[in-house]
Amino acid sequence: MAYLSLAIWLPIAFGTVIIALGRDDNANVVRWLALVGSIVSFLVTLPLVGSGFDLATPALQFQENLPWIERLNVRYHLGVDGIAVWFVLLTAFITVIVVISAWEVITSRVHQYMGAFLILSGLLVGVFCAADGLLFYVFFEATLIPMYIIIGVWGGPRRVYAAFKFFLYTLAGSLLMLVALVYLYITSGGSFDLATWQKLPLPMNAQALLFFAFFAAFAVKVPMWPVHTWLPDAHVEAPTGGSVVLAAIMLKLGCYGFLRFSLPIAPDAAHHYAPFIITISLVAVIYIGLVALVQTDMKKLVAYSSIAHMGFVTLGFFIFSELGISGGLVQMISHGFVSAAMFLAIGVLYDRVHSREIAAYGGVVNTMPKFTALAVFFGMANCGLPGTAGFIGEWMVILGAVKFNFWIGLLSATALILGAAYTLWMIKRVYFGDVTNHHVRELTDINSREFLMLGLLAVATLAMGLYPKPFTDVMHSSVIDLMRHVAISKL
Fold first, then answer.
1. Which of 422, 249, 396, 425 has its CA nearest to residue 337?
2. Cα-based angle 190, 196, 202 (whole degrees, multiple of 5)
3. CB atoms < 10 A from the CB of 402, how many?
4. CA angle at residue 393 from 392 to 399, to 5 degrees?
5. Is the peptide bond before 203 cis (omega within 30 degrees of 0)?
6. Strand partners, 69
7. Helix, strand, or coil (residue 80)
8. How far is the C-alpha of 384 from the C-alpha of 465, rounded, in Å?
9. What is the pLDDT along the chain (491 residues), one digit of tens a residue?
10. Sequential DSSP letters for 220-256
């Protein structure tokens, strides 16, 4: 079966039908149709990591290769390897959570909200599956449109400013990537095939230009310091579902792009400029961690936390070790679970009190004990507590960094201290202590819907933390093959 096409086009089809036929007076029908669509879309991704996936090969699997724009030799070429496959499942899983989270919260334009997220889900899966350069670019850019609408329509008071900033930052970076794709198309004799591009004997000056063209697109998307300023604004103004998808999935597109384009196509340039990437990654880990410490808005705090965690990922990629790259990938997946849960927890409080300010809370455990237990668990995972998903990736990257250079490893390890500092600072003031105001005193604990969405993420976070082997086994062959390719100079 064409599992990858189903994973891409099923949610897009459901989303299009929902937008076309849905109305505010049939909102319940829309909600159920969106839930069915998201669950079915998730189920079709499960066979990708089933018995049909060959752990021994780094080659693309479940490939679909059909002509698309024959005049330009552009093909509808899909495939997943051990690096991409988990992000397909993560995207589909998070979409189910987002639909559940919006069930009672979104009351106007429900069909447009649900439809936008389902279409966004299909486009994001397309990015992770594309094996053709132009197809990748189309999916990569198309994801901006539904997220721009989600922030601009259902966001906070400064939603238009945040949506424009998000759109312009990410679009501007991607234009240089388009120039790089055209250059590679001409150099390769008229091919957009990624595998062909990775075999091109490019001179160092061409590799350098390509590396920075890709860097412009992917660094903004990660986002890396200093092009990170759009993210806190986007998170603060986005609705809860928008923040969840932004943190759990969209930030991963930039990191994934480094592994698909920057490292394999320009390996010599990647080695040459690795110290630069490592330096700005460490700045993100340390400086942005300190910035998170002084935040008074819960969403901004978690947004800056995400930037620091993504700094770990890029650090792991550019130390060129199996431990570092695998650790970065594991960190991407675990951050998808934990950051999604953190933003959902903030959304639960915001729906009741309509404030994201830490000072507006205090003593929530006294009125919402079940919710507090889950929120504190996710906070501990965000700190990197052993036994949770948040620990595995960070520890792998730190070990790889120490082997690469002790001082780099030592500086990266400060993230564990800073992460604990800003997360525990928020937890203490929001959840513990005496009840400080009447808003908190009137709170009611989470209902079954909220418990379901947070519970699913808690199970995923705990399962990955206790037994990460299935994740690392799947990605092992592809990581080794990437390292072997990058280690061989093309000069």
1. 249
2. 90
3. 17
4. 90
5. no
6. 74
7. strand
8. 10
9. 788 999 999 999 999 999 888 777 788 888 999 999 999 999 999 988 877 788 888 888 898 888 888 888 888 999 999 899 999 999 999 999 999 988 888 888 888 899 999 999 999 999 999 999 899 999 999 998 899 888 888 887 888 888 888 888 888 878 888 999 999 999 888 888 888 888 888 888 999 999 999 998 898 888 888 878 878 888 888 888 888 998 889 888 989 999 998 899 888 898 889 999 999 999 988 888 888 888 888 888 988 888 888 888 899 899 888 888 999 999 999 999 999 999 999 998 988 888 888 888 888 888 889 999 999 999 999 888 888 988 888 888 999 889 888 988 888 888 888 888 889 989 998 888 888 788 888 888 888 888 999 999 999 999 999 999 989 888 889 889 888 888 754 43
10. HHTTPTTS-THHHHHHHHS-HHHHHHIIIIIHHHHHH
Structure tokens at 355: 């404030």
CB atoms within 10 A of CB 376: 18
Q: How far is CA 269 from CA 67, 215, 222, 400, 418, in A?
A: 32, 11, 20, 21, 32
Distance between alpha carbon 48 and the CA centroid of its chain, in Å? 19
Separation between Cα atoms, residue 472 and residue 327, nearest integer Å:
9
Handedness of CA 321, 337, 93, 33 (dihedral sign): negative
The tokens describing 328, both together, are 């970065």
**Cβ distance 354 to 440 under 8 Å?**
no
Residues 188 and 231: their CA atoms lie apart, in Å, by 36
At residue 339, the 3 state secondary structure works out as helix
C-alpha span between 320 and 338 (Å, rounded): 26
**Separation of alpha carbons 120 and 407, rounded Å:** 41
CB 29 within 8 A of CB 72: no
Nearest to 87 by CA among 219, 236, 249, 217: 249
Task: Supply 189's token pair.
Answer: 């004799």
Give this prediction's pTM.
0.91
State the DSSP H helix or E strand holding residue 62, giving kind and residue range, or none if neither.
strand 61-69
- For residues 438-458, b (16+ Cβ closer than 10 Å) or e, as one string? ebbeebeebeeebeebbebbb
Q: How far apart are CA 148 and CA 282, in angstroms?
A: 30
Separation CA 214–CA 160 (nearest Å): 28
